[in-house]
Specification:
- The protein has six helices and 37 strands.
- With 520 residues, it is mainly β.
- A hairpin with a 6-residue loop joins β24 and β25.
- α5 crosses α6.
């Protein structure tokens, strides 16, 4: 009997070791221009076939390690703002191979496309139209271009004349329905032409400006443990990425393509499902239901839709009141909930909507707890946290800081977490005592958007303006800030998979992916 137990233990150990030894590995050292070890450079391995990129950071000793790479051809490259290094192309890795590569950084140029939205706001010159370009403050009725993306990927990357800028601003007004008036549109176009136009006198590099060093972000040693795995989607503005129980990931495209996609995370293959329409729908949210269907919102049409992936059939249902539909969730009974101009509950069997109006304004984030209580946040002027319980009774509570509960999550103990975007805080609500607790986030302009609770009950957020992720430990109040491997992250929601990884969409960078912390 003892022998059988020992054999069983050995098998378990071997299985555990094998599970952590999957794939090839690339490691090495990154050194700065002075030859010293360089901390904080992203080392990225991109698979030429699948277009899957794994990004890790070099540690204090300059060392990096990229684990669990499938066999294939790779390109290795460095991303470190203000530095450059020769990429390694044609790197062929076999299964279980360990390869080592050294990188020597040289001083490079800092581009306007490299910096965060906060840095751009601080460094760009003042001028008429600048305020209208960036995200509004609480209570302002308009939404600006920066409500969906910053200046880096779609503005600073291309030089246009004033007619070109006016054309782009008009596209945002008409096709993407950004709510700006004629005066604001003209001011924005003129301002963009003055700073990024063909005759601009703006410094070619933000590093040439005297205030640049004051807004450079730094990160601690703990931040070097994060690993990102990302998938390219090809210019379709992916709004989120939601895993289903079969291991697929569902992606709503919020741009003008009117499609939902299914991603195979192992192969990187994407399958598109069109939603037929002559108009731009701006699909804002798409989530899989327990029965295998996918429910989604058509923000511009004030509709919700149902996709049957097997038949590819799409069925649409228009909300009973005018306005927009926003974020979708499905409860354990199959009821479909949507935020927007109102909070809606839709019964797929009767095709009937039930409407829960906000006290003022509309709803934004939404989550459903294990008891089928629905939690939603009031948008801007309202600023309340709402609950509709399983009996259909709605209640609301006003957080200590007036503002906008943006994304909302529920912990394993039933407590509610939400981001206060404008005040730069994470808030906790205890439903039992009906009390709030707020945590001020670090950084020059923290702006928590995407929000997630991991298996250790730590709270993750994406800071929209700072291009970073953060992790709050509620037990200690400590926050660790992590760099993101692109400028303009625009991460809006986090969704966990069965391995505990948090998935996201980055519309500005046309990527979806997940992240985790490596043992280093």
């Amino acid at each position: 009997m003892r022998l059988l137990k020992n054999i069983a233990r050995s098998i378990i150990v071997l299985l555990c070791v094998a599970s952590f030894a999957y794939g090839a590995q690339v490691s090495g050292t990154v050194k700065g221009p002075d030859g010293a070890p360089f901390q904080g450079a992203f080392v990225q391995a991109r698979n030429a076939k699948t277009k899957i990129t794994v990004s890790v950071l070099s540690r204090k000793d300059g060392q990096y390690r990229i684990p669990n790479l499938p066999a294939g051809d790779y390109e290795l490259r460095i991303r470190a703002v203000g530095y450059q290094a020769q990429p390694r192309t044609g790197v062929n890795l076999t299964a279980d191979q360990s390869a080592s590569f050294e990188f020597a950084l040289q001083k490079g140029k800092v581009h306007w496309t490299d910096i965060s939205l906060y840095q751009a706001d601080q460094l760009l010159p003042e001028g008429k139209g600048k305020d209208a370009l960036f995200t509004p403050h609480p209570g302002q009725p308009t939404a600006t271009c920066a409500a969906c993306h910053g200046i880096q990927t779609r503005i600073a990357s291309t030089a246009r004349d004033e007619a070109g800028w006016r054309d782009r601003v008009e596209y945002m007004r008409t096709t993407m329905r950004v709510r700006i008036n004629d005066q604001e549109a003209g001011d924005i176009a003129s301002y963009l032409n003055s700073v990024f136009g063909e005759d601009s006198t703006l410094a070619k590099s933000p590093a040439d400006l005297p205030g640049y060093q004051k807004v450079v972000q730094s990160f601690g040693d703990d931040a070097m443990k994060i690993v990102y795995v990302e998938y390219e989607v090809g210019g379709k503005f992916p709004w989120s990425a939601v895993p289903d129980k079969k291991g697929n990931v569902w992606i709503p495209y919020n741009g003008p393509v009117n499609k939902i996609a299914k991603l195979n995370p192992k192969t990187g293959e994407l399958e598109d499902f069109p939603v037929p329409s002559a108009d731009v729908l701006r699909i804002h949210s798409a989530v899989p239901a327990p029965d295998g269907t996918v429910w989604f919102s058509e923000q511009f049409k004030n509709k919700i839709g149902r996709l049957d992936p097997q038949t590819r059939q799409v069925t649409e249902y228009e909300a009973p009141t005018s306005g927009t539909t926003h974020t979708i969730r499905v409860d354990s009974k199959g009821m479909v909930w949507s935020t927007g101009s109102n909070l809606y509950r839709f019964d797929p069997e009767t095709h009937k909507f039930t409407t829960f109006p906000a006290d003022v304004g509309s709803y934004y984030g939404i989550v459903i707890d294990k008891d089928d209580n629905v939690w939603a946040g009031g948008l801007r002027d309202d600023g309340k946290l709402y609950r509709v319980n399983s009996k259909g009774v709605e209640e609301g509570w006003a957080p200590p800081t007036k503002g906008e509960p943006r994304r909302i999550q529920v912990g394993s103990d039933g407590s509610v977490w939400f981001g206060e975007y404008f005040s730069g805080k994470i808030a906790h609500f205890d439903p039992k005592t009906e009390t709030f607790k707020e945590y001020q986030l670090p950084g020059a302009r923290p702006s928590p958007y995407a929000l997630g609770v991991d298996r250790n009950e730590k709270i993750w957020y994406a800071s929209y303006y700072l291009d970073e992720l953060g992790c709050l430990d509620p037990k200690t109040g400590k926050v660790i800030e992590y760099p993101y491997p692109h400028s303009e992250n625009t991460l809006r929601e986090f969704f966990p998979d069965d391995q505990g990884r948090l998935w996201y969409g980055s519309p500005s960078n046309d990527r979806v992916g997940y992240f985790y912390l490596a043992d280093q």
